[in-house]
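User: Reviewer 2 asked us to show a designed sequence for the structure in our supplementary figure. I'm pasting the structure tokens here. Could you produce the per-position amino acids so we can include them in the response letter?
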């Protein structure tokens, strides 16, 4: 792909910021940035040498591809206001492609399967990007664009992408929440979360190196009812945590394991 390709962003949050920087590093031109919070679009535009614009109609100027990187419930509103024959792609893992039908005939999805937080560095070459297009030409162009910044570019339908996103919620969001619960329980006992760092690192290493199903350990996996009952007793003061503990314990116990 020609590195003179020009890309504009609707949205100036974490996804747009990391993606725009990755594209800029590959020699792409970032043309325009628009955001509901003007200070965000001005900040990102300054970082990538783009124009911060105030009107959505101006997003099509001097650009070839428009990336809509906004909250899922805002995509339909953007689509209703944007009419163009340029390629327009949203970055959602759960919103189906047809939501952009009213924009024009060249629409797509450009979904980076990663969690993004502020200025935390991300190696975009390791981030899977899931592509879907309304036609072959759009799919090919979005794929080539993705391959400029990522080594793992995959074609998936809207339904497939939604199922992948569901798996990602378990792997990322739910896992992080369980770690937050663990931290809270330690804090209640005046202990540092640092105590769990080696355990967490080894658990993640094993899960990535092996089949997570095969690396499951713990009292529920062993059927150690005495330990489980003691844990439940300690969680009596935390009814929500107890409910989560019981559900996950039951899930582990009802899972079929080899050996």
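Assistant: Here is a per-position design you can include in the supplement:
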């Amino acid at each position: 792909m020609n590195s003179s390709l020009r890309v504009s962003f609707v949205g100036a949050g974490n996804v747009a910021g990391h993606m725009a920087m990755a594209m800029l590093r590959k020699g792409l031109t970032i043309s325009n940035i628009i955001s509901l919070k003007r200070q965000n679009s001005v900040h990102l535009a300054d970082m990538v040498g783009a124009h911060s614009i105030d009107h959505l109609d101006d997003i099509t100027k001097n650009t070839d591809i428009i990336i809509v990187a906004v909250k899922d419930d805002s995509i339909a509103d953007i689509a209703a206001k944007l009419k163009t024959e340029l390629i327009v792609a949203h970055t959602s893992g759960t919103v189906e492609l047809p939501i952009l039908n009213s924009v024009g005939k060249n629409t797509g999805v450009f979904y980076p399967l990663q969690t993004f937080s502020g200025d935390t560095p991300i190696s975009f070459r390791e981030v899977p990007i899931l592509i879907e297009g309304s036609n072959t030409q759009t799919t090919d162009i979005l794929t080539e664009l993705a391959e400029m910044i990522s080594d793992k570019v995959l074609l998936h339908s809207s339904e497939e992408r939604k199922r992948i996103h569901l798996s990602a919620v378990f792997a990322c969001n739910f896992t992080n929440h369980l770690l937050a619960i663990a931290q809270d329980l330690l804090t209640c006992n005046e202990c540092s979360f640092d105590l769990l760092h080696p355990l967490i690192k080894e658990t993640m290493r094993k899960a990535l190196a092996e089949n997570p199903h095969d690396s499951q350990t713990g009292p529920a996996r062993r059927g150690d009812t005495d330990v489980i009952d003691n844990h439940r007793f300690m969680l009596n003061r935390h009814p929500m945590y107890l409910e989560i503990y019981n559900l996950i314990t039951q899930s582990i116990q009802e899972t079929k394991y080899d050996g």
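For the response letter, you might also mention the following. DSSP finds nine helices and eight strands in the chain. The mean pLDDT is 96.
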